[in-house]
Amino acid sequence: MRRLSVEEVLALHPLVSEKSGGGTGLRDRGLLESAVYSADAAFGGVELYPTAEEKAARLMFALVSNHPFLDGNKRIGVLCLLLILELNHVPLSYTQDELARLGLGVAAGEIDYDGILLWITQHKL
């Protein structure tokens, strides 16, 4: 299964800011590492997030919640969710408005990890 590394997320962030506006810069590398590594968490040798959908949801939730970047945490969270799913051949159908509501909902605390996973399930082709 294809995952994203800390360095890949770091490389993506300026591209997000360049395309959509906003600032660049890392606020806390430890929070970024925590977010990225959380998608690969295991307990007793069993992965907590074994599917691409679960890893994508966990990474998005952690990036948006942890705020590792100075700006663009919602946007990088959404991009990483979409990228993990695409890299692992999980096709989705969505509108830009639906993506924006997802990111805003997570940031506002209205959508949690399970809500992101439900969103993925509802938008899978």
Mean pLDDT over all positions: 97
Largest sheet: 2 strands, antiparallel
Secondary-structure element series: HHEEHHHH
Could you state the CATH homologous superfamily?
Answer: Fic/DOC protein, Fido domain
Oligomerization category of the chains in this entry: single chain
Residue ranges: pLDDT <50 for 5 or more in a row?
A: none
Based on CA atoms alone, the radius of gyration comes out at: 13 Å
Number of helices: 6
Find the structural class using helix and strand composition.
Answer: mainly alpha
Query: Could you say what the CATH topology is called?
Result: Four Helix Bundle (Hemerythrin (Met), subunit A)
* Shape annotation: globular
Number of strands: 2
CATH class: Mainly Alpha
The share of residues in extended strands comes to under 5%
- The number of distinct structural domains comes to 1
Strands across the major sheet, in which order? 1-2
Q: Can you give the helix content as a percent range?
A: 55-70%
Blueprint of the fold:
Elements: H1 6-20, H2 29-38, E1 42-43, E2 46-47, H3 52-66, H4 73-87, H5 96-107, H6 113-123
Antiparallel strand pairs: 1-2
Helix pairs in contact: 1-4, 2-3, 3-4, 3-6, 4-5
